[in-house]
Design brief:
Layout: E1 2-5, E2 8-16, E3 24-25, E4 31-38, E5 41-43, E6 51-56, E7 63-71, E8 79-84, E9 91-96, E10 110-116, E11 120-124, E12 131-133, E13 138-139
Antiparallel strand pairs: 1-5, 2-4, 2-7, 3-4, 6-9, 6-13, 7-11, 7-12, 8-10, 8-13
Length: 140
């Protein structure tokens, strides 16, 4: 057996409306950091498995996310982070799911915000560009 993802952490750097939410701030009063993590996931050698979790961010107000930082752990080769406006129940234990379903969802209520295959990858959007996330946004 091998660990597909020993641990995954997704950190979102957000400029918040009306004060910071529950993230830990930086020197800039408009910046808060929100982190999500899950794992580990065990996969047998030579097998492939797509696993999903649905996690709720700890933001109390709408946030504008300018940067995402993913730490993939030991050996995962793809990670897709979705903004999920369709699912409302957290699923913190990784479970089998179909790959790219959010990218192919015709409702537009699940949208990929980052796709990566690097163990340590950071996405910084251009100046004055940000994702808008609702209070307690669900992330798949």
């Amino acid at each position: 057996m091998r660990l597909l993802a020993a641990a995954l952490a997704t950190v979102l750097a957000a400029g918040c409306h009306s004060g910071g939410g529950s993230g830990s701030g930086s020197d800039d009063p408009l910046i808060a950091h929100y982190a999500l993590s899950w794992g580990p996931v065990t996969v047998q050698p030579s097998e492939e498995s797509t696993q999903c979790v649905w996690l709720r961010l700890g933001n109390d107000t709408e946030i504008k996310v300018h940067q995402l930082h993913n730490l993939l752990g030991q050996s995962s080769h793809h990670l897709i982070v979705y903004k999920d406006d369709m699912d409302t129940t957290e699923q913190t234990t990784p479970m089998p799911c179909q790959p790219f379903t959010g990218a192919l969802n015709p409702t537009g209520r699940i949208a990929p915000i980052m796709i990566t295959q690097k163990r340590d990858d950071q996405l910084t959007l251009p100046p004055h560009v940000a994702y808008t996330l609702a209070p307690h946004q669900m992330i798949k």
